[in-house]
Write a structure and sequence with these properties.
Mean pLDDT: 74
Number of strands: 28
Oligomer: single chain
Number of helices: 3
Low-confidence stretches: 1-25, 233-250, 254-263, 418-450, 453-483
Structural class: mainly beta
Distance between the termini: 32 Å
Length: about 475
């Protein structure tokens, strides 16, 4: 199935730069990059225009007194900056843009200020970043005040739409630790000619991105093989033959060939979950069976369990942890990931809607409502259910196939049936697609496979704002998430 591309070509290009080609090996030193842009106008078949653009390394900044583009764009003061640096084992990057007195299409869209900021940092123990400082002040759309929320979509009559605080995050944790995040303050897409611009034109106000990666420490050398003593045969009892042992999954680098795109579940593997604090992921009446490993057309086999419950039933965080990849794709629909404090990951799919807690990078507690049961993605036409997967920390190097059967854990976790949720109400109908697609190499639900050829075919590197390769070094995907 071809993935749905929610973002326009321009914004998708911003997202997938993180997965562009790179010749840097997994053992290359830590590296970082960043970029910031004040305003860009993209016009099909024309040159368009932009103001105040910088990229790092090295550290850069610039300003502009004002910017205008025909009757479509008028702004006041613009200030942008970017930085990137570090050592061989640690790297940091950051970009920011501030655009004052924004007026689009003769005042149909106005804002006192658009501010965006992206940061990233990486060491040999992990990578992280932040987009949360971004904001839009006093935004007015078609005469109405609008509160800006990440990836919120606002319809613009019959001539287009706007996405507010558009965000995306790409992570790598296989051969290197890497993080890349981008945020666009105000992104307007014209579906019909308007304000002197043809259909297909785009206006971006305030853009920042930051990326950092670092090599993982080398694995410890294997212990020397112990010499086995010669068997001592007993006259009255023959030696008992030993049954052959199944080979265990090997960490990256142990074999020259990467694991296959789709493979059987690891046999007899139990995830190292924490001793307590886990709860059942659906509140109220629910039913599920052990349908793990059942045949599936898109992924070869079912990587989790389906939990059937009424449409709109609250979906809970199973443990204390951090949310990521909160967004939409055409297989999982509304989906998100939760990483617990021990490093185990849990995948939730087919949600009808997200709760206000479901934000990229949000910290949640076990039992928090993070969404609602639905039928989005390829679950359209099926009974409402939550697709739930369990990815233990020690198998994350295997990518999407580093998954174990969640059935025993779902059967053991405490079901919450008496929580006071406050004033929540189940959503009606089906939630619209999110304003951005958040891509990650480990997230197979956005692709038909995890192979490098499949990834490269979908996420081909393109020119961005007139900047063609080689240009500044960009942090890439496996192999070598370095710049």
């Amino acid at each position: 199935m071809v993935p749905v591309r929610v973002l326009s070509a321009t914004v998708l290009a911003l997202t997938v730069l993180a997965l562009g080609a790179s010749a840097v090996s997994a053992a290359a030193p830590a590296s970082s990059s960043s970029r910031a842009l004040g305003v860009s106008v993209v016009v099909p078949g024309e040159e368009g225009g932009s103001a105040a653009s910088v990229s790092s390394p090295p550290e850069r900044s610039t300003t502009a007194d004002a910017y205008s583009y025909g009757e479509a764009v008028a702004t006041g003061w613009i200030s942008v900056s970017s930085r990137a640096g570090g050592s061989s084992s640690r790297s940091t990057g950051g970009g920011s843009a501030s655009v004052q007195s924004v007026s689009l299409f003769g005042g149909e869209i106005t804002a006192d200020a658009v501010f965006v900021k992206a940061t990233a940092r990486a060491t040999g123990s992990g990578a992280e970043g932040s987009l949360g400082a971004s904001s839009i002040s006093n935004l007015t759309v078609l005469g109405k005040s609008v509160a800006a929320a990440p990836n919120a979509r606002v319809e613009l009559g019959e001539w287009g739409y706007a996405i507010l605080l558009e965000q995306g995050v790409v992570r790598q944790e296989r051969q290197r630790f890497g993080y890349r995040g981008f945020v666009t303050g105000l992104h307007v897409v014209l579906t019909a000619a308007h304000g002197g611009l043809p259909a297909g034109s785009e206006v971006l106000v305030g853009y920042a991105e930051a990326a950092a990666s670092a090599p993982k420490p080398p694995p410890p050398p294997p212990p020397p093989a112990a010499e086995e003593p010669e068997p001592q045969a007993e006259p009255d009892r023959p030696n008992s033959p030993q049954p052959p042992r199944e080979p265990l999954p090997q960490p990256p680098g142990a074999t020259p060939e990467p694991p296959p795109v789709v493979q059987a579940p690891p046999p007899d593997v139990e995830p190292r979950l924490t001793a307590g604090g886990y709860v059942f992921p659906v509140y109220g009446p629910a039913s599920f069976t052990d349908d793990f490993a059942a045949a599936r057309a898109l992924t070869g086999w079912h990587h989790g369990n389906d939990i059937f419950a009424p449409l709109g039933a609250p979906v809970l965080a199973v443990a204390d942890g951090t949310l990521s990849l909160v967004g939409w794709n055409d297989v999982g629909g509304n989906r998100l990931w939760l990483r617990d404090r021990a490093g185990n990951e849990f995948y939730y799919a087919h949600l009808s809607a997200f709760s206000p807690l479901a934000q990229e990078g949000a910290e949640v507690r076990a039992g928090d409502v993070i969404g609602f049961v639905g039928t989005t993605g390829d679950a359209v036409g099926t009974p409402p259910h939550l697709h739930f997967e369990l990815h233990p920390r020690d198998l994350l190097w295997m990518g999407y196939d580093g998954v174990v059967n969640p059935y025993p854990y779902l059967s053991a976790w405490l079901r919450l049936a008496d929580i006071a949720f406050g004033g929540w109400a189940p959503p009606s109908g089906t939630a619209p697609p999110a304003g951005a697609v958040l891509l990650q190499a480990e997230d197979i639900s956005t692709l038909s496979g995890l192979g490098e050829e499949s990834l490269a075919g979908l996420l081909a590197r393109v020119e961005l704002f007139g900047e063609a390769p080689p240009g500044p070094v960009i942090v890439g995907a496996e192999p070598g998430f370095g710049g």
